[in-house]
Amino acid sequence: MIVKTVSYFDGAVECIGHLSIPESPTPLPLVLVAHTWKGRSKFEDEKAQALNSLGYAALSIDIYGGGVNGQSPQENQALIEPFMADRQLFRQRLISAVEFGKGLEGVDASKIAMIGFCFGGLASIELARSGYDLAGCVSFHGLLNQSTETFNQVRSKLLVLHGDLDPMVSSEQILALQDEMTQSEADWQFISYGNTHHAFTNPEANDIEMGTVYNHHSDKRSWIAMTNFLKEVFDNVNQ
After folding, report:
1. Is pTM, for the whole model, over 0.85?
2. Per the database entry, which stretches of residues form a coiled coil (predicted)?
3. How many domains are contained in the chain?
C-alpha cells in the first residue's frame, strides 16, 4: 500500500491531497474524494481508506488550496463562497485534481470517479455539469445550489444520495437539478433517504438545530449504493 501526502497545482495554487493506492499487478481505478465545507480532513482521508478496501486507488483532494481547514461555521461559509460565486473557478479546481490523478503511477486513467460530501457533494455535481468525462460522480448529502453558469452536456454518470430532512436543500432545488440533468440527457439517479438529515454519513454530526445528524442506516445504505454504482460504471468503461 502506498499512502502519502501529495501536492498538485491549479495554476499557482498548491493543493494538498492524501493519496492511497493498494498494491496491484495492474493499474487500478481511482476515486477522488471531495471534502465538506470545513476542508480536507481525517473524515475524507478515512473515506479514501474505505475505498481502498473496495480495491480502488483513492485521492482525497483539497479544493481550497494550501490544506486550509475552517474552524467555525462562519469560516467554513467564507471558504466556500468564492467557489459558489464562480463556478468556472470551482470546475477548474476540480479538473486540476482529476488531471493530476490521471497521471499517477498505478492508476488506470480511463477509470476515474469522484465522490463528495456536503460541499464536496456539490463538487461532484459541478464536475458533472462541467462536461468533463469521468466514469461517474457521486454526491452524499450534497448542496444542490444552481448557478447562472451554463451547464454543458453531462457525460459522467451521476448518483445523488440525499437525506429527505436535509434543511440545506429545498424541494425546488431537487426538482431543478433533476430537470437540469434530464435536459442534458444525463445518466442520473437520485436516492432520497427518509427521516434523514444533512451530514448523515458523519458519526460526529449531532446538531439537530442545524439539521446535521448522523444516521447509521442511511450511512450504510448510501455506501452500498455507491459501491454498486462504482462497480457498474468502472465495469462499463469503453462499452
Report:
1. yes
2. none
3. 1
CA-to-CA separations, 229 to 2, 85, 162, 220, in angstroms, rounded = 25, 30, 15, 14
d(CA 212, CA 201): 10
Q: pLDDT for 172-190, tens place per residue?
A: 999 999 999 999 999 999 9
**CA distances from residue 30 to 14, 113, 137, 208, 223 in whole angstroms, order as listed:** 21, 6, 12, 35, 17
Angle, helices 73-85/87-102, rounded to nearest 10 degrees: 90
Q: How far apart are CA 87 and CA 175, in angstroms?
A: 20
Q: How far is CA 221 from CA 34, 49, 68, 138, 226, in A?
A: 20, 18, 31, 14, 9
* Joined grid coordinates for residue 66: 494550501
Helix ranges restricted to H, 64-211: 73-85, 87-102, 119-129, 171-183
CATH number for the domain spanning 159: value is 3.40.50.1820
Give the residue numbers spanning the domain of 56.
2-235
b/e map 31-42, b = 16+ CB within 10 Å:
bbbbbbbbbbee
Question: Which cell numbers hold the place of 38?
Answer: 470545513
Q: What's 41's DSSP letter?
A: -
3 state DSSP class of 101: helix
DSSP 53: T
Whole-angstrom Cα distance, residue 159 to residue 151? Answer: 17
User: Buried b vs exposed e over 210-237: b needs ≥16 C-beta within 10 Å?
Assistant: ebbbbbeebbebbbebbeebbeebbeee
Please name which of 55, 83, 79, 77 lies closest in space to residue 67, comparing C-alpha atoms: 79
Q: What mean pLDDT comes out for the span 23-47? A: 97
